[in-house]
Amino acid sequence: MSTVSDTIAGLSHPLEEVAATLKARRTELAAELERLTEPPAEGASVGFGKRIGDGTTEAVERFATTATARSLAASIKDIDRALIKIEEGTYGVCDSCGDTIVAARLEALPAAALCVACASKV
Questions:
Q1: Res 46: pLDDT
Q2: Are residues 4 and 85 in contact, defined by beta-carbon separation less than 8 angstroms?
Q3: What single string gives the DSSP state of each residue in 42-75?
Q4: Which residues touch 98 (CB under 8 Å, ≥6 apart)?
Q5: From CA 66, how far away is CA 119, in angstroms rounded?
Q6: What b/e readout covers 90-109, taking b as 16+ CB neighbours within 10 angstroms?
Q7: What end-to-end distance do the CA atoms of the chain give, in Å?
């Protein structure tokens, strides 16, 4: 079993680069979330109509936008957690079981806070 030090040493990029990449991704996601959640323009109609079919496209789009916004917010939360773990020196440690998160998982998902075993239980 590898240690956290082995895992961090096994990353293809230094921890500082990982943090910079996470911060840049967070900025992108926050901008997209802000765009999705901004209120409609002044005078824009948000009504869905009274007849079946009226506004269906708008309603479906609104549901999709809401789901996307929730996903972006969750990703931002994951990135924030990873950045805290880097600062604390616990990056690469599973938040659930305390085991080491393998380098391959951190390479694929730099914001991962759970090992594969614990993530599969969620």
A1: 55
A2: no
A3: TT------SSTTTTHHHHHHHHHHHHHHHHHHHH
A4: none
A5: 24
A6: ebbbbeeeebbbbbebbeee
A7: 23
Three-state DSSP class for residue 100:
strand
Residues 6+ apart with CB under 8 A from 114: 94, 95, 96, 101, 122
What band does 122 get if pLDDT is binned at 50, 70 and 90?
confident
Token pair for residue 20? 């910079």
pLDDT digits (tens, 9 = 90+) for 17-36: 999 999 999 999 999 999 98
Hey, what domains does the chain have and what are their CATH numbers? 4-39+55-121 (1.20.120.910)
Task: Check whether 52 has a pLDDT greater than 70.
Answer: no
Work out the number of other CB atoms within 10 angstroms of the CB of residue 112. Answer: 23
What pLDDT does 31 receive? 97
**pTM score over 0.85:** no
